[in-house]
Design a protein that fits this description.
By secondary structure, this protein is α/β, with parallel strands linked by helices. It folds into 2 domains: 2-174 and 224-252, NAD(P)-binding Rossmann-like Domain (Rossmann fold); 177-222 and 255-323, UDP-galactose 4-epimerase, domain 1 (Alpha-Beta Complex), CATH 3.90.25. Helix content is 39%, strand content 16%. It contains 10 helices and 14 strands. The protein has helices at 11-22, 55-64, 79-84, 86-106, 140-158, 192-202, 227-242, 261-272, 296-302, 310-323; strands at 2-6, 26-31, 47-49, 67-72, 111-115, 167-172, 175-177, 207-209, 221-222, 224-226, 250-252, 259-260, 279-281, 290-291. Strands 3-2-1-4-5-6-11 form a 7-stranded parallel beta sheet, with helices on both faces. Strand 5 (111-115), helix 5 and strand 6 (167-172) form a beta-alpha-beta unit. The longest helix has 21 residues, at 86-106. The protein is globular and about 60 Å long. It starts with a strand and ends with a helix. The model has no long low-confidence stretch (mean pLDDT 95).
Length: 325
Amino acid sequence: MTWLVTGGAGYIGAHIVRALDGAGLTPVVVDDLSSGHAGFVPEGVPFVRGSILDRDLVERALRDHEVEGVIHLAGFKYAGVSVQRPLHTYAQNVEGTRALLEAMQSADVANLVFSSSAAVYGTPDVPLVTEDLPKRPASPYGESKLIGEWLIRDQAIATAASEHALRYTALRYFNVVGSGDPTVYDTSPHNLFPLVFEALIEGRTPRINGDDYDTPDGTNVRDYVHVADIAAAHVAAAQRLLTGQPIEPAYNLGSQNGLSVREIMDAMARVTGIDFTPEIAPRRPGDPDRIVATGELAARDLDWKNRYTVDEMVRSGWEARQAAR
């Protein structure tokens, strides 16, 4: 049983590839390496270099490898940057998803796990985000992910009576951290963990982007979830689709509690042994005050739970980054 992972050479995708292999599902990777790394793809895993915007390339990959399902991660994922680059964001995330769906239909591939985002909710005014909360994205990135969900939903409706009716689910999450493999680490120039790690390695003082948010310590609060838990949930969703079990259109992969940026900084100092007082920088545009989601539906259907403490998240990420030096 073969699954295509778009964006499978990226930080999250590479962990999903390993989790698929561990579950007895054969992974195939499509990635244009715009932010991924060929070295993150395990030896022996087929790797097709190219963009999901190239519909013909994707269809060939689906047919050549007799793919039964797709885990779709490829896209432009930086909420703050998307405010300055909305057209690029929509091209990659909306047009890319549309082209993928078209290739899947042509190749008779009818199972899809969509890697969405908690950014579809914008700035919720409730303590815990549930899947049925109104969607009010605060950035072009969040908007593009929501449109991606709509595209997939509409394609499922359109194909419902066909021989290869699309079955799908969307997994919504926010900050993915840590490492489940010492050879794979987060290389994003925008995510909090790698920004702090690089600053500490270079002897610079890490920065907090804004300390005037409407939160207890003034820094924004997010779900921080370990990448190995995220990978396991994607595989569980794929298995549920393959076996024909009932599945929700969307699941939150939430922590239930959330952590503030300042709490993360404190853990960074504890785990690395490097004492520092973070500098305070201006807010990034498009960043909401707080997004913390419940994971109850995912716990029920996908065995979702947080298996790592904040110190374990930091330690696994720090050790993987140190190993790459």
